[in-house]
Amino acid sequence: MGFEINGIDHIQITSPKGGEDRAREFYRDTLGMKEIPKPENLKGRGGCWFSCGHQEIHISIQEDHIPPKKAHPGLIVTNIEKLRERLISLKMEIKEEPPIEGRTRFFVNDPFGNRIEFLEYH
């Protein structure tokens, strides 16, 4: 083929207009991700970006935001049970799915209804 896909740079999920503060509360304050500056030429669009390991999560504004029912990012976690405890203490609903061999996983919804999967490999 002459080329190779080497990884994922970022994922993009959406929020309704004005969702930036709620995104920061969830992704930065609850999950501990670092907010990173958007490029100057994209700041006028709204939204916010966060680093997630060597990848990024881009929260973009979508006027007619409807969260997908099945599509979701899967985020690799160290000490997933500590994260589970934190989310439960914040009254977030943990959603279990059938287990996958070699990993522990669960799902939550972000403030905009986007489904987020957390996984820890063992």
Please, could you describe this protein's structure?
With 122 residues, the chain is α/β, with parallel strands linked by helices. 17% of the residues lie in helices and 31% in strands. It contains two helices and seven strands; from the N terminus they run βαββββαββ. The protein has helices at residues 20-30, 80-89; strands spanning 10-15, 34-36, 48-52, 55-61, 74-76, 103-109, 115-121. The strands form two sheets. Strands 1-4-3-2 form a four-stranded mixed sheet, with helices on one face. The chain is globular.
Task: Please give a handful of descriptors for the protein shown.
2 helices; alpha/beta; four-stranded mixed β-sheet
Main sheet: strands, sense, barrel: 4 strands, mixed
Which percent bin holds the helix content?
10-25%
Number of helices: 2
What does the radius of gyration come to? 15 Å
Tell me the strand percentage band: 25-35%
Termini gap = 34 Å
Alpha-beta content class: alpha/beta
* Uncertain parts: none
Kindly report the spatial arrangement of strands forming the biggest sheet.
Answer: 1-4-3-2
Dominant shape: globular
Spell out the helices and strands N to C: EHEEEEHEE
**Secondary structure tally: strands:** 7
- What number is the mean pLDDT? 96
